């Protein structure tokens, strides 16, 4: 997959750190990587956004942002309130295709979950994924509530005819509670797609060199890693 769209079951699920892990694993295989953040919200003009955080953790990646809005809101709302143009799906697709011509892997990090509105017509990241015919990776919570949110996201992807290669748990707790432990088995069932990794909690606080060295161990071979889903489900990984 040369373009991979990364969405979440909601906001604050670990999308950026997961994007960084996928980028780091690809870089470790010698692949060139670009990260496209179509709409960055909640960040001032001179502050580092999500794409910069990916580069800080993963290393040498090309960064592209299409729009930045100061308020931490859905892109459509943030654009409207800022009196600035919205980002359209065709602009996202064109930017991703341009990057894909020059990189082995382009990661497109959405804002919040799949159906967050990007413009006043209700366009979403799913529309950009369809224009690109790109697979959509879903980042999910580990614990209680994730089965429903992940099932809904999977259903929305399938209803739109989009490819859904799998789910990455964005923050796997050091002390996993009962729900999280059970979800190792139940999450892929609810998703209708395999688990493709689990990023440990606080991974983003690791020194970048440690993050890069460890990232392939958090991700399945499909994402350039060496993570073993079976061992994880059995609780030994
Ligand atoms: Mg993010």
TrEMBL record:
Locations listed in the record: Cytoplasm
Recorded catalytic activity of this chain's protein: (7R,8S)-7,8-diammoniononanoate + CO2 + ATP = (4R,5S)-dethiobiotin + ADP + phosphate + 3 H(+)
Active-site residues annotated for this sequence: 37
Amino acids binding ATP: 12-17, 50, 109-112, 170-171, 201
Pathway recorded for this protein: Cofactor biosynthesis; biotin biosynthesis; biotin from 7,8-diaminononanoate: step 1/2
GO cellular component: cytosol
Subunit note: Homodimer.
The enzyme's E.C. designation: 6.3.3.3
Function: Catalyzes a mechanistically unusual reaction, the ATP-dependent insertion of CO2 between the N7 and N8 nitrogen atoms of 7,8-diaminopelargonic acid (DAPA, also called 7,8-diammoniononanoate) to form a ureido ring.
Pfam families membership: AAA_26
Record-listed substrate binding positions: 41
Enzyme class: ligase
The name this protein goes by in its record: ATP-dependent dethiobiotin synthetase BioD
Binding site for Mg(2+): 16, 50, 109
Keyword terms of this UniProt record: ATP-binding, Biotin biosynthesis, Cytoplasm, Ligase, Magnesium, Metal-binding, Nucleotide-binding
GO biological process: biotin biosynthetic process
Molecular functions (GO terms): ATP binding; dethiobiotin synthase activity; magnesium ion binding
Keyword DNA damage: no
Family per record: Belongs to the dethiobiotin synthetase family.
Cofactor(s) needed by this chain: Mg(2+)
Organism domain of life: Bacteria
Gene label: bioD
InterPro entries xrefs: DTB_synth_BioD, P-loop_NTPase
């Amino acid at each position: 997959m040369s373009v991979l769209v990364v969405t979440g079951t909601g906001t604050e699920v670990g999308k950026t750190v997961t994007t960084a892990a996928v980028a780091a694993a690809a870089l470790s295989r010698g692949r060139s990587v670009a990260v496209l953040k179509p709409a960055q919200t909640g960040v001032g003009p001179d502050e580092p956004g999500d794409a910069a955080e990916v580069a800080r953790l993963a290393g040498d990646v090309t960064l592209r942002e299409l729009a930045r809005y100061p308020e931490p809101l859905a892109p459509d709302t943030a654009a409207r309130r800022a009196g600035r143009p919205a980002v359209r799906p065709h602009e996202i697709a064109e930017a991703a295709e341009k990057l894909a011509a020059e990189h082995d892997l382009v990661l497109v990090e959405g804002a919040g979950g799949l159906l967050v509105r990007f413009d006043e017509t209700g366009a979403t990241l799913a529309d950009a994924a369809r224009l690109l015919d790109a697979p959509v990776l879903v980042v999910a919570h580990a614990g209680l509530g994730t089965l429903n949110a992940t099932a809904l996201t999977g259903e929305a992807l399938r209803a739109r005819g989009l490819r859904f290669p799998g789910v990455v748990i964005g923050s796997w707790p050091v002390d996993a509670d009962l729900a999280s432990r059970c979800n190792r088995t139940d999450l892929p069932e609810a998703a209708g797609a395999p688990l493709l990794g689990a990023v440990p909690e606080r991974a983003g606080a690791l020194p970048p060199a440690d993050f890069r060295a460890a990232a392939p161990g958090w991700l399945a071979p499909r994402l350039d890693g060496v993570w073993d889903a079976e061992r994880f489900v059995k609780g030994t990984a």
